[in-house]
UniProtKB/TrEMBL annotation:
Organism, scientific name: Fictibacillus macauensis ZFHKF-1
UniProt name for this protein: Aminopeptidase S (Leu, Val, Phe, Tyr preference)
One BP term from GO: proteolysis
Alphabetized UniProt keyword annotations: Aminopeptidase, Hydrolase, Metal-binding, Metalloprotease, Protease
A GO MF term: metal ion binding
SUPFAM superfamilies: Thermophilic metalloprotease-like
Homology family: Belongs to the peptidase M29 family.
Cofactor dependency: Co(2+); Zn(2+); Mg(2+)
A Pfam family per the record: Peptidase_M29
Length: 412
């Protein structure tokens, strides 16, 4: 029987709480969301309390107001201001292993036309004052989920030929499909999906791969994985021993590169929304791990500022595998949103390594991370490189070579 919108909407909110966050009785929840997502925030909050949540905190973001702030605020404010109440909340949530839900949905070009240098100031400042909280999330101390909710600007960018109402409805349906909220038993569907991803993770961890060689149109790149790398995918275990799924949707398995072990050129295959602007048809060239050259047909200035956030943004922090023949890719929808587009395509990330991907990294200082060849940065930006002609050849530590991806899909 076909489910109504209200049923899918409710099931999506329930999935976020019970499957994504796996919220436990007595935990608190911080929700950061666009103002247009208020209806979904209300439904998630309802399910959170029904699931035993102690307290829900909500921090709404107004993109139009942010534009005014980014345009007119003094540079010293853009570069240095951080509210003390937010710092105290982040610290408290981390200490108590509470949860965090990040709702994405801003228009991909929400800050188009604003001086890219001012946007860089804001991005660096946000990264700096949330650094400890971000580290706690990446260590698994704070179970977290990123989920999408349509806004007018985002929907218009995905379905430009539709009316505003039609575009929002179409984007909702696309999201429901990608998160499996449209099936009869979404929780059961996610259990099956996570099992499938776990099988891939187990295979890759048993193989102990040393290098990956990527080849496709515009791409010829070799990546040496960190010797202590761990593949992950689907559910992750928090430091409190509870499983959670950080991304809804998720189709990826991912791990960490060796900081200085990346060489060659890689080309993007989907648009990237970064710092409120679109970067498209871009390439990065690496030598001994570092970006030494880059180009972009669209958004060059934004790419330039992104790469200059700090030294760590010139190195890779994540290697992720997603088959071209995957549900999101097969939908034919380009979401102009990294959460969704990265789960339709193999991707890489410049910036900070996800510490859960390297054994023991969560307890290391920045100096120890550097000594071990683990990239550290205030930023972490995924970009999509998968395509129908992608070929990935793997070599293990015994020198054995095998094809991991052929024609964009798993060859194992």
């Amino acid at each position: 029987m076909t489910k109504t919108f209200e049923e899918k909407f409710n099931d999506y909110a329930e999935l976020v709480v019970k499957v994504g966050l796996n919220l436990q009785e007595g935990q608190r929840l911080l929700i950061k969301a666009p103002m247009e997502a208020a209806g979904f925030v209300h439904k998630v909050t309802e399910h959170a309390y029904k699931n035993g949540c102690k307290r829900v905190f909500v921090d709404y973001k107004d993109a139009a107001l942010e534009r005014i702030h980014y345009t007119y605020a003094a540079e010293e404010v853009l570069e240095n201001f951080a509210p003390t109440w937010e710092q105290e909340l982040f610290t408290s949530l981390t200490e108590h292993n509470d949860c965090c839900l990040l709702i994405t949905g801003e228009a991909p070009n929400a800050y188009s036309g604003i001086d890219s240098k001012r946007l860089k100031m804001v991005t660096k400042n946000n990264a700096k004052h949330t650094e400890a909280f971000t580290k706690a999330r990446l260590n698994g101390e704070v179970p977290w989920v990123i989920a999408g909710v349509p806004t007018k600007g985002w929907a218009a960018s995905v379905f430009p030929d539709q009316t505003e109402e039609e575009a929002i409805a179409s984007l909702w349906e696309a999201i429901f499909q990608t998160v499996r909220a449209d099936v009869t038993n979404p929780v059961e569907a996610w259990e099956t999906h996570v099992q499938s991803l776990t099988q891939k993770v187990n295979f890759l961890n048993e193989k102990r791969i040393k290098t990956l060689h990527y080849r496709s149109t515009g791409t010829d790149l070799t990546i040496e994985l960190h010797p202590d790398h761990l593949w992950m995918g689907g559910g992750h275990q928090s430091t409190a021993g509870k499983m959670f799924i950080p991304n809804l949707p998720t189709e990826e398995v991912f791990t960490a590169p060796l900081k200085y072990g990346v060489n060659g050129t890689v080309s993007s295959k989907k648009p990237l929304s970064a710092m409120g602007n679109i970067i498209d048809h871009f390439s990065l060239t690496f030598k001994d791990g570092k970006v030494v050259d880059y180009a972009a047909e669209k958004g060059y200035d934004t790419l330039k500022e992104l790469l200059s956030l700090d030294e760590g943004m010139l190195y890779l922090g994540e290697v992720a595998l997603v088959p071209h023949d995957s549900p999101i890719s097969n939908s034919g929808v380009i979401f102009n949103n990294t959460l969704f587009d990265e789960n339709a395509s193999c991707h890489l990330a410049i910036g900070n390594v996800i510490s859960m991907n390297i054994e023991g990294a969560g307890a290391m200082s920045k100096e120890e991370l550097e000594e071990k060849g683990i990239n550290s940065s205030t930023g972490h930006t995924d970009f999509m490189i998968g395509s129908h002609d992608l070929h990935i050849e793997a070599v293990d530590y015994q020198g054995h070579s095998f094809t991991l991806f052929a024609d964009g899909n798993w060859a194992i």
